[in-house]
Amino acid sequence: MAEMISCEEVSVEVDFYGLYLQDWDDSQVPVPFPEGWKAGPFLYARPGRLDITSGGHTHTAGLTIEVWDAEPSAPSGEWEETALTEIFSTSGQLEVGGVAGGPMPEPIQLSDRACTWAVRVACKGRAEVAERARQGVPDDVVERYVFQFWPQA
Q1: Taking a C-beta distance cutoff of 8 angstroms, is the pair 96, 20 a contact?
Q2: Which of 8, 14, 54, 62 could serve as 144's disulfide partner, Cβ 3.0–4.6 Å?
Q3: Which helix (H) or strand (E) is 134 found in, with range?
Q4: CA dist., res. 56 & res. 38, Å (int)
Q5: Cα–Cα distance measured from residue 34 to residue 50, given in angstroms and rounded to the nearest whole number
Q6: Domain total in the chain
Q7: What is the CATH number of the domain that holds 43?
Q8: Which domain holds residue 19?
Q9: Which range among 46-55, 95-104, 118-127 shows the weakest confidence by mean pLDDT?
Q10: 8 A C-beta contact, residue 118 and residue 71
Q11: In what order do the strands lie in the sheet with 59-68?
């Protein structure tokens, strides 16, 4: 049975319908964010980087980052979008940010070593934030993500 190693709750400022996670050591990312960014599918994986297209243009999204020792059960509840992919991190840390707003000041800690991680992403609140963002910038967190990371065998 999989055991959770850590769980972190963070907020990210989404802009231009996007947010990203990439290796903290961006010298190891062949195409660092925002190069090549365009709103598209829910999740687009590139080497060392994950691009996520949000439901709303400008707002604050809530992220739950879970690190597991093996593949966990999918997060419970109803989700509007889910995806499964992988990311290689040389630093063991990830940068998180919005398209124009840039990265958050502190990294997300996955481990203390280089590793290829399986990643499950689940999102809810997309339809609501899309509607509310058309009327202005929502002043509360509407769109929520769960990122589950576990080492690839």
Answers
A1: yes
A2: 62
A3: helix 126-134
A4: 14
A5: 11
A6: 1
A7: 2.60.34.30
A8: 4-151
A9: 95-104
A10: yes
A11: 4-14, 59-68, 144-151, 115-124, 81-89
Please indicate, yes or no, whether the overall pTM of this predicted structure exceeds 0.90: yes
What is the pLDDT, as a whole number, of residue 102?
87
Cα Rg of the chain (Å, integer): 15
Residues of the chain with pLDDT > 70, as a percent, come to 100
Please check whether residue 75 is in contact with residue 148, taking contact to mean a CB–CB distance below 8 angstroms: yes
What DSSP character marks residue 139? S
What six digits make up the tokens of 12?
A: 């990210």
Question: Cβ(21)–Cβ(108) under 8 Å?
Answer: yes
Three-state SS string across 105-133, please? CCCEECCCCCEEEEEEEEEECHHHHHHHH
pLDDT of residue 80: 98
